[in-house]
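User: Modeling request: complex.
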Amino acid sequence: MFKTFKALRANGVMGINERNVAYVAALNPRKFLARVDDKFLTKKLAEPAGIPVPELYGVIENARDMKRLEEFISHPDGFVIKPAQGSQGKGIIVVEGPLKGGWRLASGKRIDLEGMKFQINNMISGMYSLGGQPDKALIEYRVKFDDVFGKVSFRGVPDIRVIVLKGIPVFAMLRLPTAESDGKANLHKGGVGVGIDLATGRTLQAMQHDHFIEIHPDTAHPLEDIQTPFWEDILLMAAKSYEVTGLGYIGVDVVLDREKGPLLLELNARPGISIQIANRRGLRFVLDKAMALGDEKKSPEERVEIAKTLSDAAPVKPAMIEPADA
Amino acid sequence: MKIKIRQAVILGFALIAAGLAVFLVKAALLHYPLSPGERATLWDFELYIEFDGRNQPARIEAFLPPSDVGRAFLQEAFYDGSFGRSLVAESETRNRKAVWTYRYPANKKVLRYAAQTMGETRSTPLPLSFREAGAQVTPFEADPVKRQAFIVLSGNLRQRSADERSFADLAIAEIFEESSGGEPYADEISALLDGNPGVAGRLELVRQLLNSQGIPARIAGGVYLTEASRRVEPRRWLEYYVDREDFRFFPAGAPGRFFTIWYGPEPLLEATGVDNLDFQIALKSQETAASGVAENAPGALGAFGRSVGFGALPLTTQLVYQVLVTIPVGITLLVFLRQFIGFKTLGTFMPVLIGIAFRETALLNGILLFSLLVGLGLALRFYLERLQLLLVPRLAVVLIFVVIAMAVFAVLMAETNQAMGLSISLFPMVILTMTIERMSIIWEESSAGEALKQGFGSLVAASLAYLVMTNPQIEYLMYRFPELLIVLMGLCVLMGRYTGLRLLELWRFKALAS
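Assistant: Request completed. Predicted assembly structure:
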């Protein structure tokens, strides 16, 4: 046990405690947290800064707004309803399109107007927000995801998580939904995480449930060496989100839309640490190097260039599959 | 960043040190017992003086135990009758004297002094002030014969001894050896003891011999507590300090426990103007709680010990605090489980609150009832989901249901004579309701497995918190030494800056260790 502890330390693997104390608490001023915790605010700040976001169809905050629900959702291509302050993808309803007087959900189930109103009421009464505060429900454009990841996704929308330290992208990962994760790309629900090389945007190795894997568990498609399109744009979006939020340590979640290219889905002030397994290396050394190279005066473009030089900071575990319980 | 870490570490250790310092003072100096129910023997000491008045001014002087010595004695009481009493402290000998006076006493009179003491043992250290080496003095300045005898005797003892310690041993042996006539200096000794061959005289001679060599020595008077009875003889012994060690020489055999009353060769009692003076010392032992003795310790230190405690509160409030002070222990345990092990629980401190509820139900029943109530609540919650109620009314429905379920249990159990049903009413229903709500959300949003995992984690944490909080030793320590709360606070401060991996993260990131 102590040997494992020492080995993980030597490899620069970061735990939740360190993330909370040394990065989240130290670099993310509390007064700015609302900018990422409230997705409505994130959207309003990101758009003028040149970061594309999914189009907002409407916001429901109270019963009066609810009367306009049918107007907000009159989009044949479907839409997404999400609590503005939800976390970890909780409470998100993805509607694919109308179905026999109701609507078809991405999960394949059907929902009627009453059911939808009930869910929205839950959202605005704070069921998914921290501490149960009153919330807003956002109704927005449903992303039609790029086919590039079609073969390695099972339903749902794959997204790209970039960890950004003081405006410098440091770690990136492709998150793929699986049958087990019910179309959600969250890793703790059984989604697949695939490391992405910051310099090239090509996928590296993959993981599911904290174990290394090589192929997608549902589609059996190999996960390595897939080129992420618009990689430069994605890095730039991630870098720019520093100016938008003022937060020094964030996770930037980007989706690839078939028509609109990369869109900022949400920001996270407490990004998870499983990304280390997907990249097969610890965060600490990369973060240390980025911290040393970082400079408040550098432009987002310059910071993207720095990001591409970071990959040599930490040793990468060999790509060979090691069963985690060996 | 670095400064913050250093500050937190300094603060944490400072808190721990401050708490431990108070703890050590109470434990080591005031002898607060470290485990509950520790018993101590306490002796009731009584000095009873009887005499006949002569119708002329009377003055009775008696030594009383000095109040500034580190040994515990308490509850002093006087019975003075019509006499005037004054207390005199002699700073040099550290003696304390009671002086009773009356102008024209007639008939039989009685005076009384009573105190309680734990006494001293041979390991009780002598006062530090006593250890300063005295000047080398040769007594009997006025009597050339005695002076000559003393010089011969001390010179000879000095010659036959190697150092101060062997000098002292030899002097005691020489003077207290029964005169069988064989000693080479029997003549000198009997000359020096002239007119006072008793124990007191011999002790005084040894003291003079030791002082002549610069060894601090004094005669102490008191009683042997091991001789507890209605009538106890006052005893004399010698205290001296040599080679950085305390020594006591008891001519009448060493007692296990004794009680010092005065120092010096004078008798315990002196009186003028009275007839038929008689005194009696009574000693009675009694068993008592050791904590009570410590809490009544005299002096500023004793008052300090009392100020860091709950003794001043009314009894009912004390009982509340007896429970309250254990909660931080549970909280600290929970912090450890979360920050170092990586336990996942429903709600931050919910397990501790459940643990407190277990106090009333006992562990096994508590776990059963908790699981049952949460299970029923979850079932209802899933049904309510179908009714599409709004959040707050839905929580209210679940809460009311929890109360009803608890009431039904209580009634059913009471009918079957199960006492455990009654204890259920103290379950925190709001906590239960929130637990049910949280669990059902995790159930839906993540998975049933995750919900059960967190529920199980909470239950394990609650059980551990309960076991820690109800441990009699921990309960006692926290209540008797509330300064340990500061220590817990310091521990939590330190744990708050722990940035290392958690135990469960070792397992999680095992793939990255090579």
